[in-house]
Amino acid sequence: MRNELVTNNVRFANLLIDTHSSKQESHSLLCDLHYHDEVELLAITEGELSFVVNGKHHICRKGDTVFCSPRIPHATYVTEGACAYTLVQFRPEHYLGDSNNTGKYFNRFVRNTEIPFLIINDSRLFSLIGTALEEYRAEEEAFELYIKGTVYAMIALLCRRGALTTQNSVYSPDIEKILPAIAYIEEHSASDLSLDEISSVQNLNPSYFCRLFKKASGAGFVEYLHFVRICKSEKLLAKSRKSILEIAYDVGFSSVSYYNRIFKRYKNCTPTEYRRAQYENR
Question: Could you tell me the domains of the chain?
Answer without folding.
Answer: 2-160 (2.60.120.280), 172-280 (1.10.10.60)
